[in-house]
Amino acid sequence: xxxxxxxxxxxxxxxxxxxxxxDAIRGVAVLGILVINxxxxxxxxxxxTNPNVYGEFTGLNxxxxxxxxVLAELKFITLFSALFGAGIVLFIESKPEGSALRLHHRRxxxxxxxxxxxxxxxxxxDILVPYALCGFVLxxxxxxxPSTQAKLGVVLLLxxxxxxxxxxxxLGSEALAGQWSPAEATLQSEVATYRxxxxxxxxxxxxxxxxxxxxxxxxxxxxxxxxxxxxxMALYNWGVLTDERSNRLYSLLVVGGLVGxxxxxxxxxxxxxxxxxxxxALFWQQFNYxxxxxxxxxxxxxxxxxxxxxPEGPFTRAFAAVGRTAFTNYLLxxxxxxxxxxxxxxxxxxxxxxxxxxxxxxxxWVIQVLFSVLWLHVFRFGPVEWLWRTLTxxxxxPLWRSG
Length: 403
Known about the structure:
Blueprint: H1 20-42, H2 59-71, H3 75-93, H4 97-121, H5 128-138, H6 146-170, H7 184-195, H8 202-213, H9 215-237, H10 247-273, H11 281-309, H12 314-324, H13 326-341, H14 354-378, H15 383-393
């Protein structure tokens, strides 16, 4: 049982009772996912599959891609997903037995509504809808033994990996069809669409979001996200995510993260040795698919050890503030990025290099940290967190710290 506690059903946990490492991990995760999300905010979607298909891929741009691939791609969304699983258990544990499941479903239902609006009105890469759909299903495993949750999580994670390996063996390059080497006209059409106005963007955003939430969800996202959510439940119940284990365990997680980096670098060598051949693309993706789990665990260990060393340090407080406003910051990233890159704003889509986009990410991190810290000096919740909480409980929640 976690020591993360709440005072009652509707009041936020006082800062003195919050676990700094848990908030800090969430803050690092939401900041880190922008490193990868900015690629599809600023470039055609298929650059995530094959970075060679669009934009300069040499020099500083190559190293920007490599750093993101090794240290960020799938790592921070893995952390975010595991924390979502932990959050399901934490939320239900903090509520009276008679109302816990009802409140969870209402909370998850509003998450689904917000996610659908995010996906169809702003950005097709939304993760909130998959979280909500998984949340409705996987809540039934909240009371299972953590070993059972972990084993089932690994089973779910295996499904898309095995499907891709089978496809790679039986179909080879045909398994990826136009996803690996899309026609130039396809890429330029997407560029033109997102340099256009908000209504024009529906030509790509609507079918892409629908595909991701149907075939994409059933074929891959449910298994990856769902498996990680279950692992998050297990890690929460084991006390790993709540700073309850030994320094030795967290140090081992850091070592595991370094091993994961080695695995991913081996994958980069493998795909580059084959000259980025589509015939081995599905095999290459397995290196990062599994290595990212180790690296994500390494981040858990590293952040927890740091917050133990400096529980009141500036980085701990900064990341924790971002973590406490993670929902707001996630949506804020979309609002700012689409305004910068899409045609209803500055219209920079397809014209910014990888290195320039990464520089923008670092600048926005500074803004997000400052915003989060200053906001929480005045308010109890982030604005979206407050709205979500109000909708969940069906009554207006106090927002001002003095309220």
